Amino acid sequence: MFTLAEENYLKNIYHLEHEFQGEVSTNAIAERMETKPSSVTDMVQKLAEKEMLSYKKYKGTLLTPSGRKKAANVIRKHRLWEVFLVEKLKFQWDEVHDIAEQLEHIQSDKLITRLDKFLDSPDFDPHGDPIPDKHGNVKSTEKRLLSEMEKNGRGVCVGVKETTKEFLQYLDKRKISIGTKLKVLGKEFFDGSMVIQVGNDQFFISKKIAENLYIQTN
Amino acid sequence: MFTLAEENYLKNIYHLEHEFQGEVSTNAIAERMETKPSSVTDMVQKLAEKEMLSYKKYKGTLLTPSGRKKAANVIRKHRLWEVFLVEKLKFQWDEVHDIAEQLEHIQSDKLITRLDKFLDSPDFDPHGDPIPDKHGNVKSTEKRLLSEMEKNGRGVCVGVKETTKEFLQYLDKRKISIGTKLKVLGKEFFDGSMVIQVGNDQFFISKKIAENLYIQTN
DNA sequence: ACTTTTTTTTAGACTTGACTAAAAATTAAA
DNA sequence: TTTAATTTTTAGTCAAGTCTAAAAAAAAGT
């Protein structure tokens, strides 16, 4: 069993490992978690005892396979709850983080299994981040901005970068949401604007819009 | 803001107040919460400081109006989550308590408002206990066992006493769940069995069944 | 009314997870 | 390579919430 604090450390170290592609320093953890390096040292030593991470004094830490699995599971729960909040409770994409931050610590495997099914086993959360599977594996398909796509490119909307009310309302109007498939029909070099196809509708999209939509291409 | 421990104390004291219809003793709290009386004294003094309850040494405690409201809100959340787990995630009625025990501490008024709406503002949880409204008020209509009802009595199923798999499956088969309206068509004095009407179906029910179904009559 | 028993409180200690201040190791600069 | 700056760890403290053991108050028994 893990305490809330331990779970939060594992989760944040997991994210930092990805960011740095390697060992994570004590200071980096402290900065991310808004705590002091001395507190981090304490906790990291405790988690090393529990074999959740490997730690050598002054050399930073790396998650062990079981630590990584545990961390991925917390993130899985976080992202599934985010989907629930947006899809079922109609929260906006930028309102859900703090609540999911609490919900991710609820302990019950059965709950998560059922929540996942209830939500139709989504692959991405409302921010377009992939949801790890129950074994902690992440579909590592890269998401990219719509603005980076070329003519005739196809993909699925997996998230947004900007989360202002106005932008989200625009997307609603255009019937663009998570899972929406789209195709780039044309792209204007001069201003970066595009013409895209969504379902049976074709319409113009400005560069600003295209720079704030994450697309997953297979 | 309240800690998890504080919320649990308030909730349990609330229940004990109802049980005892008055002051709650230190020992009673300790026993219910499976902790030691000395720990209870500490916490009760802390909550008295916060004016959540009135406490006189050796005389037991009573919740203040704000303490009672706070407690009712925790219970509201607990019971709403229970409805969610049963109605939406298809948990059985006896599986949900421990999970709701965790979920009741999630902090977000907006979440509860939306969850309530998502569930169609239920008045009762799957055990037939009333869900306090957002002001902490409880509809104090008594629930009673079906076996206590007389011929021609009408009511709504609000919960179960027994929660074995077999019993719940029986109810499923008979299409009886929370909110199901029913009427007593006949009652046999000899063995306490009944004939009831559920929707368009009429069927026989044994005393054993009738003694495990809670009905709310208006 | 005066013991005895039960209940409740106090005092002191422990654990978790944080902190500050100071020491030690590492890295960067001269 | 020796000093200076940075990073990290250690040592000691603190608050929350629990515990045990002992003291104090209340209730019960004779």
Report the structural category of chain A: alpha+beta
Question: What is the average per-residue confidence, as pLDDT of chain A, rounded to a whole number?
Answer: 92
Percent strand of chain A: 15-25%
Largest sheet of chain A: 6 strands, antiparallel
Number of strands of chain A: 8
Strand order of the largest sheet of chain A: 3-8-4-5-6-7
Shape type of chain A: elongated
**SSE order of chain A:** HHHEEHHHEEHEEEHE
The number of helices of chain A is: 8
Oligomeric nature of the chains: homodimer
> What is the assigned CATH homologous superfamily of the domain at 143-216 in chain A?
Ferrous iron transport protein A (FeoA)
Euclidean distance between termini CA atoms of chain A: 38 Å
**For the largest interface in this structure, which chains are involved and how many residues does each contribute?**
A-B, 18 and 18 residues
Task: Give the CATH level 1 class of the domain at 143-216 in chain A.
Answer: Mainly Beta
Low-confidence stretches of chain A: none
- The whole-angstrom Rg of chain A is 20 Å
CATH architecture of the domain at 143-216 in chain A: Roll
- Remind me, CATH topology of the domain at 143-216 in chain A? SH3 type barrels
Helix content of chain A: 40-55%
Blueprint (SSEs and pairs):
The structure is a homodimer of 218-residue chains.
Chain A: H1 4-20, H2 26-33, H3 37-49, E1 53-55, E2 61-63, H4 65-88, H5 97-103, H6 109-118, E3 143-145, E4 154-160, H7 165-173, E5 181-187, E6 194-198, E7 201-205, H8 207-210, E8 213-216
Antiparallel strand pairs in A: 1-2, 3-8, 4-5, 4-8, 5-6, 6-7
Helix pairs in contact in A: 1-2, 1-4, 2-3, 4-5
Chain A binds a DNA duplex (30 and 30 nucleotides) through helix 3.
